[in-house]
Amino acid sequence: MVTVRAPATSANLGSGFDVFGAALSRPADVVTVERAAETTIEVTGVGAQYIPEDPEKNTVGAVVEALDAPARIHIDKGVRPASGLGSSAASAAGAAVALNRLYDRGLSREELVPIAAEGEAVVSGVAHSDNVAPSILGGFTVTTAEGTRSVDAAIPLVVCLPDVAVSTRDARRVVPETASMEELVETVGNAATLAVGMCRSDTDLVGLGMDDPVVTPERARLITGYDDVRERAFDAGATGVTVSGAGPAVIAACRERDRRDVAAEMLDAFAEAGIESRAYQTRIGRGSTVLDE
Ligand SMILES: Nc1ncnc2c1ncn2[C@@H]1O[C@H](COP(=O)(O)OP(=O)(O)O)[C@@H](O)[C@H]1O
Ligand SMILES: N[C@@H](CCOP(=O)(O)O)C(=O)O
């Protein structure tokens, strides 16, 4: 038996659509696997009632197939589904790390990234790796067709999750098909600024680089209260604010000393828009961790 804690993640970080990702120190899923002749999946925890246990429909089932590793699997969800916090990815990442260990497949963490991403194709139609990469490797990750690079970064974060669901599949439908040269230049500049900020653990640069003129404005329209939440977070000291993944969670980078105020303002702003929400005071954290074997 192997048990793995796989963290929530925030993909895109504004300027890095389908490329950037960051592991969050909390929340997390806990995935336990045991050898079995046939695969079964049991799901408990946050939002478990919305998650299919059929291996064909659960992200974990695709990982079992890819690793040829049938197992009895228990997923204890700490990451709410349809959150923008890589819920579907956390389970897939945890299963990939756990099954690799259980069956002694000997794959490196980098090699497990495309395998876990197969699970994302099951739910969103696209095997995007920007959530599974940080959930497996930890830190800030850059994923391209050539592979994944990661760096550790000490960046305090607030993630505010409103009590509404946005599926990644739906939120991908609003992504524009084209961008102008001006938008491209702005996006490259912001993405590069963010990457430099991560390498230096510089919260100001990371925040500055989170702006995105192409995808985020379209996604923000799907989140009631977004503009006020963003503005209030900045007023409380956030250095950057954007949609987390496909939403509805909103992520803010800030200094440690401002984190509590930023969280309080974001919660208040959602409440004023008539939406209950939950704020996680978190930071960029480690990847999947083996808890027990
Ligand atoms: N192990 C899993 N954990 C979470 N969601 C899952 C899992 N397997 C399948 N799903 C489905 O994936 C969808 C949520 O994924 P997605 O829309 O990408 O949201 P998120 O941003 O939270 O990952 C839901 O429809 C859920 O039922
Ligand atoms: N790059 C993807 C990321 C989706 O993240 P999720 O946490 O919302 O699943 C996208 O923006 O569609």
Automatic annotation (TrEMBL):
Enzyme Commission designation: 2.7.1.39
Sequence ranges assigned to domain GHMP kinase C-terminal in this UniProt record: 196-269
Pathway: Amino-acid biosynthesis; L-threonine biosynthesis; L-threonine from L-aspartate: step 4/5
UniProt main location, coarse: cytoplasm
Keyword Nucleotide-binding on entry: yes
Residues holding ATP: R80, P81, A82, S83, G84, L85, G86, S87, S88, A89, A90
Domain GHMP kinase N-terminal: 60-139
Highest taxon of source: Archaea
Substrates-to-products reaction catalysed: L-homoserine + ATP = O-phospho-L-homoserine + ADP + H(+)
GO biological process, one term: threonine biosynthetic process
GO cellular component, one term: cytoplasm
GO MF annotation terms: ATP binding; homoserine kinase activity
Cell compartment(s), UniProt: Cytoplasm
Keyword hit for Transcription: no
Catalytic class of the enzyme: transferase
Function: Catalyzes the ATP-dependent phosphorylation of L-homoserine to L-homoserine phosphate.
Name of the protein in question: Homoserine kinase
Source taxonomy: Archaea, Methanobacteriati, Methanobacteriota, Stenosarchaea group, Halobacteria
